[in-house]
Specification:
The complex is a heterotrimer. Helix content of chain A is about 30%, strand content about 25%. Chain A is of the alpha+beta class. In chain A, the strands form two sheets. Chain A has a seven-stranded antiparallel β-sheet. In chain A, strands 8-9 form a two-stranded parallel ribbon. By secondary structure, chain B is an all-alpha fold. Chain B has one domain. Chain B is globular, with a radius of gyration of 18 Å. Chain B is built from nine helices and no strands. A two-stranded antiparallel ribbon of chain C has the order 1-2. Chain C is flat and about 60 Å long. Classes of the chains: A alpha+beta, B mainly alpha, C mainly alpha. Chains in contact: A-B, A-C, B-C. Chains B and C meet through helix 2, helix 4, helix 7 and helix 9 of B and helix 3 and helix 7 of C.
Chain lengths: ~230, ~190, ~220
């Protein structure tokens, strides 16, 4: 920056400056639109696949799903690309289109940072049937067991959610609404449970009605293409 | 309210921008020699961060829903020009304020913490109020880290540190220890 | 900066970025957002490759267009060019390697704020021919990637006992979890800088000794 270049040309006028910037901006815009359109389909497909896999994981037996929103009274079916908010969730159906359960996402503070959880809920049995951590930055080796420890994740495969889920010391699980917390990561375990309890307090009663029929399925599962 | 408090404390202590996200390292390592300067730079940065949060929110709400591919470029251009504009305004309106804070402003615009804040707030889908709280927390966290670092560095200046170690390597190791200390804040919110 | 008496060749420009003017170890540039993603060798390499793409692309373009960029707005033009390349890298990675993109996440766009990249445009690419600018960019980007890789592998080996996800030690190895956490980033870079300084210092002493001996022999 301090290098003094010999002044070989006269100072360019402001018209030149504006023109240069506009041209640069225009070309850059063109390139960006091109790359955006070129990658759009792949990115959308990746995102849809990730979500689908998560929903199928928390709701065993599900092969089709659709996005739903609670509009104050009932659940209405949304197009797959509709925006997510706190009133949206997913309905899961089997191959014949029979309703199996809801997949509910919620997030809250964990030990380090926000944890995002997705869980499967069977309204008929009023039970949780599976859970999956969508996103977390919990401590490697300790807090990350909330998704790496298969035994912990299995806690949620058949769990009574009422009156509340309670995390207890590993090995002391006695009731149907209790889970074994991770040794050394009690705070992360309790955070997961609290996020679920909050979501259930919000959703529990809203989901007691008849589930909506399958209308706009997002996509049929491709059995040969699941991760892990 | 709970949520805002969590955002603030989380960015201030648990996920401190400098010590956990490595954002704003350049001034952290470069300018933190003097306590007084560090504090003023911290304040000026907080100010720019708040402006950034505002800009990012406006862009995200009104522009980028239609053209997400312009996100990065528009963040840079809008933030830089807004800060430049404010710098000129401060220079005109209050020369004394400009003397104490304004001189840092051009330096701060190129700070990665600024762009980092805009991008993090967007990724997390923060609204206006959440974004502003996030910016205040990040700014306060940055100031805290700067001041702590400057304090330690002023102390070590009279200590016997081998010449080979002095400089960036030494500062980084101090930063590592500070960062370790800040890890102790994790779980602050969930333990209740 | 350079102490060459004769004009450096394109080859010199390529090599200087690797050790003598290594952007990380010597200039300590561009570490701001990058330290965050050096918690594994793989992340470090992906980030290094993205930076490589952006730096080489921008240098090429800036140097090719240097006659047409008016000086008063040059920085703005550089930033537009760099931001365009970063966005292209961002979308490409999101489409091709979504898993890696999730790990690097918010830090990928922050390549824009990497002072090393803008620095090379201002200090080198805008003043040299395409050939030299390209060599300089490749050298600097490789040096940067090398440094990121060194950081990433040290942190992954100590913090997880693995390299590129492959376990290196038996089950008895107790990982130093702290190394893959943020403090590990500061400490590892600090220690690597120390080693780098030490080697450079030893080399300088050695050369001085040799010179002294030669002077004594005469």
């Amino acid at each position: 920056m301090s290098t003094q270049l010999p002044m070989m040309e006269k100072e360019p006028g402001s018209a030149t400056l504006v023109a240069t910037l506009s041209i640069a901006g225009f070309i850059s815009g063109l390139i960006l639109i091109t790359i955006y359109l070129a990658t759009f389909d792949t990115i959308a497909a990746n995102k849809a696949r990730e979500l689908r896999e998560a929903v199928f994981r928390v709701l065993p037996g599900v092969t089709q799903m659709q996005k739903l929103r609670f509009d104050g009274k009932t659940l209405v079916v949304l197009p797959a690309d509709a925006r997510d908010d706190e009133n949206t969730l997913y309905g899961g159906y089997d191959a014949e289109g029979r309703f199996i359960g809801y997949a509910i996402a919620n997030a809250g503070p964990g030990f380090q940072d926000t944890i995002s959880v997705l869980y499967g809920y069977d309204p008929a049995a009023r039970k949780m049937v599976g859970m999956w951590i969508l996103d977390s930055r919990e401590t490697p080796g300790l807090g990350d067991k909330i998704y790496k420890d298969a035994a912990f994740v299995a806690n949620f495969d058949d769990l009574v959610m009422e009156p509340q889920i309670i995390a207890v010391k590993r090995g002391t699980k006695a009731r149907e609404n209790e889970i074994d917390a991770i040794t050394g990561a009690t705070i992360s375990s309790k955070a997961v449970v609290r996020i679920m309890n909050e979501a259930h307090a919000f959703w529990g009663e809203k989901l007691s009605g008849t589930p909506p029929a399958l209308e706009k399925q997002i996509e049929r599962v491709n059995h040969g293409n699941t991760l892990k | 309210m709970d949520n805002l408090l969590w955002i603030f404390i989380s960015t201030l202590l648990v996920n401190n921008f400098v010590l956990a996200y490595f954002l704003g390292l350049c001034p952290f390592l470069g300018v933190s020699g003097r306590l007084e300067t560090s504090f003023r730079l911290g304040l000026a940065t907080t100010f720019v961060l708040v402006i950034t949060a505002l800009c990012a929110w406006v862009l995200n709400t009104y522009v980028l829903t239609h053209a997400p591919y312009l996100r990065l470029i528009s963040f840079i251009v809008v933030i830089a020009s807004t800060v430049q504009f404010i710098e000129m305004a401060i220079k005109k309106l209050s020369p004394s304020l400009f003397q104490s804070l304004g001189i840092f402003l051009p330096l701060i615009t190129t700070n990665c913490a600024i762009l980092g804040l805009a991008i993090f707030a967007t990724n997390r889908g923060y609204g206006l109020l959440e974004g502003l709280t996030f910016a205040l927390g990040a700014g306060a966290g940055f100031t805290l880290a700067m001041v702590l670092m400057a304090g330690i560095r002023e102390e070590t200046e009279i200590g016997e540190v081998p010449a080979l170690v002095r400089g960036t390597a030494f500062n980084l190791i101090i930063a590592g220890i500070l960062s370790m200390a800040f890890m102790g804040f994790a779980g602050l919110f969930s333990s209740t | 900066m350079a102490t060459h008496s004769n004009k450096p060749t394109a080859y010199d420009e390529l090599l200087k970025g690797l050790w003598r003017d290594n952007p990380v170890f010597v200039q300590v540039l561009g570490m701001c957002p990058m330290l965050a993603v050096t918690n594994s060798a793989f992340n470090a390499v992906v980030m290094g490759l993205a930076t490589f793409f952006v730096l080489v692309g921008s240098s090429l373009l800036v140097s090719a267009l240097r006659q047409w960029i008016p000086r008063p707005v040059r920085i703005s033009v550089y930033v537009i060019i760099i931001a365009t390349f970063v966005t292209v890298a961002d979308y490409t990675l999101l489409a091709l390697l979504p898993a890696a993109h999730k790990e690097l996440g918010a830090f990928l766009p922050l390549i824009v704020a990497n002072c090393m990249i803008l620095g090379r445009q201002e200090a080198f690419a805008s003043k040299h021919t395409v050939k030299f600018a390209l060599m300089d960019a490749i050298g600097m980007a490789s040096g940067f990637m090398l440094a990121l890789f060194a950081l990433g592998s040290v942190r992954e080996i100590l913090g997880e006992g693995k390299l590129f996800g492959l376990a290196l030690f038996g089950d008895h190895f107790e990982p130093w979890v702290i190394m893959i956490l943020p403090p590990g980033g500061f400490l590892t870079l600090g220690l690597l800088l120390l080693i780098f300084n030490w080697v450079t210092e030893r080399k300088r002493e050695f050369l001085a000794q040799v010179a002294e001996q030669q002077a004594g022999n005469r």
